[in-house]
């Protein structure tokens, strides 16, 4: 590890010296270019003027490309260093590596995120020789003879692009090389971004597409004087494509869609205010943006889902989250190419699926409700996976004898449901439900199918009438308790450990409970003719819409898992607590570079102050040099859009009730880091106005040196959090990391 630290220390010094030298050179060139010899005679020949202009252009190009090239070199060096380590599953690699395997094996699964990121992970693994057999069961599992490197390198590559993209975005907004350099350095030197981008995760893919969308947005803005050219159409289409890709990785991509939408409205409003432009011209702009920023992303988004649903055509563990009709298209599912009776008869063995989005199967098992939770009788739950504990026998309410001839179940019939495995009846009584305290408890009761009058239910078809026959899949059913006039429902609430984290089933006195609808999925009865399940197969649009309903429901139901550390939005900007990626001997800890993160907070405040100051000066009509006013306007507009980007990617989390984690802040971090680069350079430029000449240049060099060396050195100090820590934890006074535990909440 000492050799690694020496390498990083040398790299840090080289990087700092390189950038300070580049910025000083740029500063000198800018100064010399701004102060031409006004005594030159107008009679200078034209050829000499052209040569001089060409040299200036070359110098400007070099002053842009040299720092950009250095940034690329150090991005590659820092991001791909030790990318194969640790050689075991880290954090959420257990989820997304596993999902990549399922894509390769074409096994259907449920996830709360759209499919593009996972499909790209699977594609990168497939193209680099991964065969989809490693189980990715839990963090810490060793990669033994597993070709996982291709997937890590792919994610790392996409994550690495955010550094040069930050340079390009700030350049397009300000046309300032120093601002671009500062922004890129702050993104490059954040150890949190480095950690997040080196593993098989969705986050590096999301951040890459998000930054591409932002870059495309500002590029289109830069081309506002060249509308409808080939380049303009290309960048507008690039922006729309990036938006589609961003929201196809995670739904939080919606925030950058909002940013681009606001920017587009602003641009159109500005065009509308230009009275030299005709309404026909404005309408052309509107239609172009509708085509490239609405229609194109929607088509691509649906295309990604079409590929997703086409590839995953085999039954898997996530089938039960989807409707019976949806499952009928999955090879290996009990409903695929299935034949079963269309109608329900007494004596049939059935499964009942709750009709709410993502609803599970009515389920029971031998376990009892614990002491103090209603009557100590057999548990009744809903369960999202298929097994024999989901099977129920349909009986008449007043007889255990099965009819010799088939007798159909109709709307309004009184029935009993006997659990096939335990032979106890579905039962309710006036005991309080485990979680929903206004509901009655539902239990399994009786012995060998014999219970009492509390086992009787009236079966009702939703919008049905007397004489209607109950049908498989298509009939939406309510089960009303005969004595207590409550309706069988799934509250959607997760039971504690004693209920194996399955969902609560209760009996609700409110007959209009929206979660009280059920449908029959499996229907086994030998005395009725079978029909093919193909008649229930949904269209692509039906599956597309259902997928979204299930994903949104899954997102809202996310709860913290045992042993996980969640966080709240107030903790994120201050870098209050990190997150373990690997807790073995080779520890990885997700934590932001405190110098950069705390600096971002300061510069968010400073930008607000500077913006208000500039607005007051403009409103009061102070007379200033036209170039100064124009420059300030460019900086304030650029900073405003980055500030809005930060707000859109941060503030919405305050309203979310689902479980949240530290890594949710990193999209907002990118915008605040770019804003810091712009604001810092603007403040330095104004200091130079106050202190002209050699004093100003000295101050400039000192500030630049302090800023860059602080960012570089803090990266060097905290880099073991990303590259891996061995030995004692920072809690131990003998640990080399002990002195870096600046906050007690940092747990590395």
TrEMBL record:
EC class name: transferase
Record-level Gene Ontology MF annotations: dolichyl-phosphate-mannose-protein mannosyltransferase activity
Residues annotated as domain MIR: 341-397, 406-462, 467-523
EC number in record: 2.4.1.109
Subunit-structure text: Interacts with Rt/POMT1.
Source species of the chain: Cephus cinctus (Wheat stem sawfly)
Entry's transmembrane regions: 12-30, 62-81, 149-170, 176-194, 201-220, 232-265, 286-307, 595-614, 634-656, 668-691, 698-718
SMART domains, per database record: MIR
Record-linked InterPro entries: ArnT-like_N (IPR003342), MIR_dom_sf (IPR036300), MIR_motif (IPR016093), PMT-like (IPR027005), PMT_4TMC (IPR032421)
Keyword Cytoplasm set for record: no
Name of the featured protein: Protein O-mannosyl-transferase 2
């Amino acid at each position: 590890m000492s050799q690694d630290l020496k390498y990083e220390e040398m790299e840090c010094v080289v990087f700092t010296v390189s950038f300070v030298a580049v910025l000083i050179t740029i500063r000198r060139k800018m100064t010399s270019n701004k102060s031409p010899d006004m005594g030159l005679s107008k009679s200078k020949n034209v050829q000499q003027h052209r040569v001089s202009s060409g040299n200036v252009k070359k110098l400007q190009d070099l002053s842009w490309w040299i720092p950009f090239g250095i940034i690329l070199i150090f991005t590659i060096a820092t991001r791909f260093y030790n990318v194969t380590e640790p050689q075991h599953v880290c954090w959420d690699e257990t989820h997304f590596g596993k999902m990549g395997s399922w894509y390769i094996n074409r096994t259907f699964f449920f996830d709360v995120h759209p499919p593009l990121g996972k499909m790209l992970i699977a594609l990168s693994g497939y193209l680099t020789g991964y065969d989809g057999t490693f189980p990715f069961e839990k963090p810490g599992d060793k990669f033994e003879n597993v070709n996982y490197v291709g997937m890590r390198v792919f994610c790392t590559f996409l994550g690495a692009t955010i550094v040069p993209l930050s340079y390009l975005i700030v350049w397009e907004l300000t046309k300032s090389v120093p601002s671009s350099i500062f922004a890129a350095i702050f993104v490059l030197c954040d150890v949190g971004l480095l950690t997040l981008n080196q593993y098989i995760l969705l986050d590096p893919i999301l951040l890459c597409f998000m930054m591409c969308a932002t870059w495309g947005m500002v590029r289109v803005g830069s081309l506002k004087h060249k509308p409808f050219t080939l380049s303009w159409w290309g960048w507008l289409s690039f922006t729309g494509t990036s938006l589609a890709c961003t929201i196809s990785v995670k739904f939080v991509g919606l925030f950058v869609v909002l940013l681009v939408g606001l920017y587009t409205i602003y641009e159109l409003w500005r065009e509308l205010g230009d009275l030299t432009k005709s309404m026909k011209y404005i309408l052309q702009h509107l239609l172009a943006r509708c085509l490239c920023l609405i229609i194109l992303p929607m088509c691509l988004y649906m295309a990604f889902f079409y590929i997703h649903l086409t590839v995953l055509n085999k039954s898997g563990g996530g089938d039960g989250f989807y409707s019976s009709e949806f499952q009928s298209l999955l090879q290996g599912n009990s409903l695929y190419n299935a034949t079963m009776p269309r109608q329900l008869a007494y004596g049939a063995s059935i499964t009942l699926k709750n009709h709410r989005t993502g609803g599970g199967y009515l389920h029971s098992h031998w376990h009892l409700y614990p002491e103090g939770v209603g009557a100590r009788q057999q548990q009744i739950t809903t369960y999202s996976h298929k097994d024999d504990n989901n099977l129920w026998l349909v009986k008449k309410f007043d007889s255990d004898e099965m009819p010799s001839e088939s007798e159909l179940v109709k709307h309004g019939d009184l029935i009993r449901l006997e659990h096939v495995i335990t032979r106890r009846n579905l039962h309710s009584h006036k005991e309080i439900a485990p979680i929903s305290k206004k509901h009655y408890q539902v239990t399994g009761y009786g012995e060998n199918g014999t219970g009492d009058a509390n086992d009787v239910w009236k079966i009702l078809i939703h919008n049905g009438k007397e004489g209607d026959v109950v049908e498989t899949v298509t009939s939406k059913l309510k089960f009303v308790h005969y004595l207590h006039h409550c309706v069988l429902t799934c509250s959607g609430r997760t039971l504690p450990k004693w209920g194996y984290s399955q969902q609560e089933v209760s009996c609700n006195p409110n007959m209009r409970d929206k979660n009280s609808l059920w449908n029959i999925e499996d229907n086994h009865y030998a005395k009725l003719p079978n029909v093919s399940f193909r008649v229930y197969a949904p269209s692509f649009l039906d599956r597309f819409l259902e997928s979204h309903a299930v994903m949104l429901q899954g997102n809202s139901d996310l709860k913290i898992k045992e042993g996980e550390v969640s966080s709240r939005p107030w903790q994120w900007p201050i870098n209050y607590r990190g997150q373990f990626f690997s807790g073995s001997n080779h520890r990885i800890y997700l934590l932001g570079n405190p110098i950069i993160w705390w600096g971002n907070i300061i510069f968010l405040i400073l930008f607000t102050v500077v913006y208000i100051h500039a607005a007051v000066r403009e409103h009061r009509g102070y007379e200033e040099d036209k170039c100064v006013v124009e420059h300030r306007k460019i900086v304030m507009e650029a900073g405003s859009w980055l500030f809005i980007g930060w707000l859109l990617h941060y503030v919405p989390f305050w309203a979310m009730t689902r479980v949240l984690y530290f890594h949710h802040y990193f999209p907002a971090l990118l915008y605040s880091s770019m804003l810091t680069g712009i604001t810092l350079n603007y403040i330095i430029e104004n200091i130079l106005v106050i202190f002209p000449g050699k004093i100003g240049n000295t101050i400039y060099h000192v500030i630049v040196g302090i800023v860059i060396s602080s960012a570089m050195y803090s990266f060097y100090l905290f880099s073991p959090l990303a590259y891996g820590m061995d030995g004692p934890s920072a809690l131990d006074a003998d640990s080399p990391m002990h002195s870096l535990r600046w906050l007690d909440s940092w747990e590395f």
